[in-house]
Amino acid sequence: MDEFFVTVESTPELLWCPVITSLDHIHIHAGDPLATIRFYESCLGAEHLGSIPSGEGGRNHGVLLGGQLLVISEFPPGMKPAEPPEAGVGALRSGFGVAHFGLQTTDLDGVLTRLRDAGAQVHAEPRRTGSIRYVYVSAPDGVVIELVELHLPAHLARFVPVVNGVNRGIHLTRRALAKRLFK
Predict the structure, then answer these.
(1) Would you say residue 113 has pLDDT above 80?
(2) Is residue 31 within 8 Å of residue 76, measured between CB atoms?
(3) What is the pTM of this model?
(4) How many CB atoms lie within 10 A of CB 12?
């Protein structure tokens, strides 16, 4: 059986192991996929890359958001949308498993203004814990998003341009691959 993490006896550090190479996508079933796509595009700067047939006879829409691939589709046959439960802080008050997904931003207030203007429900005012300022909002279809803005001390802030460069490279690579897939 493959191991997800390998420990090196001389160090307690966990090393990357090729069983899981990356997060591939987040799939969202939507009551109105095109409206959901417009929300992610207009409020969060996502890019709709196109669509491909789904295994259930509908369409899977590829949407690139922050270097990650969202797949947005209608509900498959036999499933139907329901009213999402009441939102708590950071998650729905009742649900199954996934509490939220987080997006890092350099302008929390600006993104929050766009979301409020679009009518998104903000769970509470932004909070700060140490170097992290964050807020939770409800997106369409019962999805909860955490927006995160980092305020790092100088000894860590100097690495941000390097990490941003790597993330930009990942974004461009995923975009190129996904544009070929979602034609």
Answers:
(1) yes
(2) no
(3) 0.76
(4) 7
DSSP string spanning 5-31? -EE-TT---EE--TTS----EEEEEES
CB 137 within 8 A of CB 123: yes
Shortest CA distance to 70 belongs to which of 90, 42, 49? 49
Q: Which sequence spans correspond to the domains of the chain?
A: 1-81
Nearest CA to 127 out of 102, 108, 105 is that of: 108
The dihedral built from the CA positions of residue 173, 176, 181 and 182, taken in this order, carries a sign that is positive
Q: Which pairing describes strands 47-53 and 59-65: parallel, antiparallel, or unpaired?
A: antiparallel
Q: Cα separation of 98 and 69, whole Å?
A: 17
Read off the pLDDT of residues 167-177 as tens digits, 9 standing for 90 and up: 889 989 989 99
Query: What's the fold here for domain 1-81?
Result: 2,3-Dihydroxybiphenyl 1,2-Dioxygenase; domain 1 (3.10.180)
